[in-house]
UniProtKB/TrEMBL annotation:
Domain of life: Bacteria
Top-level class of the enzyme under EC nomenclature: isomerase
Catalytic activity: 5-(methylsulfanyl)-alpha-D-ribose 1-phosphate = 5-(methylsulfanyl)-D-ribulose 1-phosphate
TM region positions: none
PANTHER family: METHYLTHIORIBOSE-1-PHOSPHATE ISOMERASE
EC number in record: 5.3.1.23
Protein name, per record: Methylthioribose-1-phosphate isomerase
Pathway in which this enzyme or protein is active: Amino-acid biosynthesis; L-methionine biosynthesis via salvage pathway; L-methionine from S-methyl-5-thio-alpha-D-ribose 1-phosphate: step 1/6
MF GO annotations: S-methyl-5-thioribose-1-phosphate isomerase activity
Pfam family of the protein (one): IF-2B
């Protein structure tokens, strides 16, 4: 990914000291590009909870570096640090996946060797995510190419929800990776960006990313998708995900399910892009078995933006004493999903296809 022409990853180790960890403060985007420097596990847990860093794969990589920072300070706290980091957010399974990988790599090492091994394992997780997302891009590209072939010189209209781009991963993104590759290959692409209330990941983050990459896009209110589909303005929906069950149910940002329903009603293909770290083979039924994060009411009652004179301000938009509810994710049943784009290829969202592609996970 590039910001102002400079290539970055979404997380990296500060080269000048070789141990502190840099992340973009996503609560400041798109108004300020501010790289935070994380120096201990507490800062990492805060960054994940407060969503300074977010997106399922990136949360996993950040937690892995949190373990490394904890091991640098006190290598005898491995189990406790992993428990704390794993408890920061409940829905994205990548967090548990990364912590379990860290535990497996470190548990049997003498404490004196744990810090170095933890940094190496966290770096391997980050490298794996970047390479995996790039492969997702390659495997998703033919979906867009096929549509472009059917309507030469007319933009392929993709609708996406939330942010599943490089800000949600170490690099490339999941749902946005095929879009970047299609754009770079010269396909005419236009993206409908759902604003994604309450936290506006679409309006703030996806629009920022696509703009930085020069991809034509339009931000729409979350409620616009069904209308656009009814009028033939959407060729394909591609979203990311925070957890996919062994039967293919998909947890993703709240509002995704409604897009899947509208897509089905209008014959629009609904694809879900995911890395292997997002598969949770321990659960089958997403609706009853995936814990859905409930976040603060303030995310619904308040809006943050930049004033004309450049100040970042938060204002209340909900009437006086009205309470709010804020479920952060929903589950789209596998029957509404056209298919899954993974680093190993594209498959149907069925138990058989998932088990066939990932036999080592069964
Ligand atoms: C590639 S992460 C999956 C996304 O589609 C997802 O909804 C997401 O961005 C994660 O939610 P967030 O609550 O912003 O961490």
């Amino acid at each position: 990914m590039k910001i102002d022409g400079v290539a970055y990853r979404s997380i990296w180790v500060e080269p000048s000291d070789g141990w502190s960890v840099r992340i973009l403060d996503q609560t400041k985007l798109p108004w300020q590009v501010e790289w935070l420097r994380l120096t201990d596990e507490d800062q990492v847990t805060h960054a994940i909870r407060a969503m300074q860093t977010r997106g399922a794969p990136l949360i996993g990589a950040t937690a892995a570096y949190g373990v490394a920072l904890a091991m640098r300070r006190d290598p005898t706290t491995l189990e406790e640090s992993c428990r704390r980091l794993a408890g920061t957010r409940p829905t994205a399974i990548n967090l548990r996946w990364a912590i379990e990988r860290m535990l497996a790599a470190l548990r049997n090492l003498p404490p004196a060797h744990r810090a170095a091994a933890a940094y190496a394992e966290a770096a391997a997780i980050a490298d794996d995510d970047a390479a995996t997302c790039e492969a997702i891009g390659r495997n998703g590209l033919p979906l867009l190419q096929e549509i472009a072939d059917r309507k030469p010189n007319i933009p392929v209209n993709v609708l996406t929800h939330c942010n599943a781009g490089w800000l949600a991963t170490v690099d490339w993104g999941t749902a946005l990776a095929p879009i970047y590759m299609a754009h770079d290959a010269g396909l005419p692409i236009h993206v409908w960006v759902d604003e994604t209330r309450p936290r506006n990941q679409g309006a703030a983050l996806t629009a920022f990313e696509l703009g930085a990459h020069g991809v034509p896009h339009t931000v729409v209110a979350d409620n616009a998708g069904g209308h656009l589909m009814q009028h033939g303005e959407v060729d394909i929906v591609i979203v990311g995900t925070d957890r996919v069950t062994r039967q293919g149910d998909v947890a993703n940002k709240i509002g995704t399910y409604l897009k899947a329903l509208a897509a089905r009603d209008n014959g629009v293909p609904f694809w879900v892009a995911l890395p292997h770290s997002t598969l949770d083979m321990r659960v089958a039924d997403g609706i009853t078995e995936i814990p859905i994060e409930e976040r603060s009411q303030a995310e619904v009652t308040d809006l943050t933006g930049r004033t004309a004179d450049g100040r970042i301000e938060t204002i209340r938009v909900v009437a006086g004493g009205s309470p709010a509810a804020n479920p952060a994710f929903d589950v789209t049943p596998a029957r509404l999903v056209t298919g899954l784009v993974t680093e190993r290829g594209r498959i149907a969202a069925t138990a058989e296809a998932i088990a066939g592609l990932y036999p080592e996970k069964v």
